Amino acid sequence: MGSVFSELQQLYSSANESITWYSIVIYSVILLASWVAYCWLIQPLMSPLRKVPGLPWNPFIGNMPDVMRGQAMESSSEWVEKYGPIVRYHFFFGTERLMVAHPDGLKHIMVNNSKNYIKPPGRMKAIKKFLGNGLVLSDGAEHRAQRKLINPAFNTQSIKKMLPVFESCGKQLTELWHSRYEKLHGDNNYADMEVGSDLLSMSLDAIGQCAFGYKFNALESSLKKTDDESGTTHSFQRMISGGGLSWKMMLPFWDKLPFEDVRKMNADSAMVQKTVFKVINQKKAQLEQEEEKLTHDLLDMLVLARDEETGKGLSDLELKDQVMTFLLAGHETTSTGLSWILLQMANHPECQQKVRQEAQEILPKDGTLISWDDLDKLKYTHAVIKETLRLLPPVPLTLRQALNDDVICGYFIPAGTIILLCPGVMMRQQDSFDDPLKFNPDRFMNETNDTNPYNFLPFLLGPRMCIGHKFAMAQMKLILAMVVREFQLALDPVYTYKRKQRITMRPDPSLSLRVCPVD
């Protein structure tokens, strides 16, 4: 034993003698030179993606400064103009990625070969700390099972039953604005109001009642100038804005970082989750006492769902993941869409007047509830919403990762490639629409059967198409008609808006408008 120990000591001593600062420097230089040679000479020649046109390569920071500069969709639109609708770009440390803004390429990834493309697991880890493994973030068989369970809650028949809730929320919104106008307008015939947070509150109330049978009373608290019971609305709004954490959330351990904004985000997440469990427990209690009075909303279906083989229902954690998903993703996309729509109405008063005239002619005036047939007759209003979503989609991009080798529009794509899908950029291209940067709702007034459906993708398409797109369209149409029927909307000259990408692409700063009641 002693001889073995002695030999080990000799080896250790020899190793120490051979390792000098000089040798460390030499080995480091050789290693660095080898890495540089690989990066600049071998990798560009051997890359499977080398035939895809794209940006100059940087092995350290990639093209990320270009990605992050300017407004949302700005740099990617410039890439398409310069390189075409399929572009090779580089993430940090020179990792190659693709950007696809071609209708055929998007169709291939989202529809034809959708099973080959998943959401990148690494990127999803950060978001799952908020949403859990609900419908938006699940993949494969799990996603298909969840979607099959949830689909009935968002079909046309279910949406029709939600219209009274949408209308009630719309009335609360207009009452709030009338009340605020009376207090703010002074000697003017208008009042400058921050309305972005009102739209968030209204959307939260709507999704809460329609999907979960729960009243957040967010708009009512605004009308009464009181905080809602749990402070959930404010926590939601801070979480949606990202709390200034956009770059930190790319780190797998971001929630452990010793920063004030991280602490606040964790506190907001805890607040929202507390409310979510309250919603679930309230629903369970209702179902135990009043099973014959089921509303058949989303949470009813989730709580009562049973596995066909085991007979087990969803755990509280699984229920929490789904409720978090629909509360955050559901009300954020709708409120953001409405913000862009109302901003376009303020920018285009002639279009606003057409929407107003249509609403005054079609919406009931005798207190009768707005019907599905009424909504269906709002043709120009529908066109305004589609044109806004074409130019300013709340979700202009999404990420996918290839599971297996594939070919997209003639380019070989190796397994593992991360692809940035950009339907928002595609919808702004001349190949998709004539005069694409012009706001022109009339382009959607005379659609024909030969219109390419893959040129208009604000809700994506295929198995991962937004499950709530009918919900969102119906709510936005009804709220737009109700608001414009009662108010003239103009720009507040204090503000100019930019497209800012967070969870969704939102107006920055939050929307403020010059509001005046219609005579």
Automatic annotation (TrEMBL):
Keyword Translocase tagged: no
List of residues binding heme: C466
Alphabetized InterPro entries for the sequence: Cyt_P450, Cyt_P450_E_grp-I, Cyt_P450_sf, Cytochrome_P450_Monoox
Cofactor names: heme
GO function terms (MF aspect): heme binding; iron ion binding; monooxygenase activity; oxidoreductase activity, acting on paired donors, with incorporation or reduction of molecular oxygen
Domain of life: Eukaryota
Pfam family, one: p450
Keyword list, A-Z: Heme, Iron, Metal-binding
Family the UniProt entry places it in: Belongs to the cytochrome P450 family.
Descriptive protein name: Uncharacterized protein
Annotated source species: Owenia fusiformis
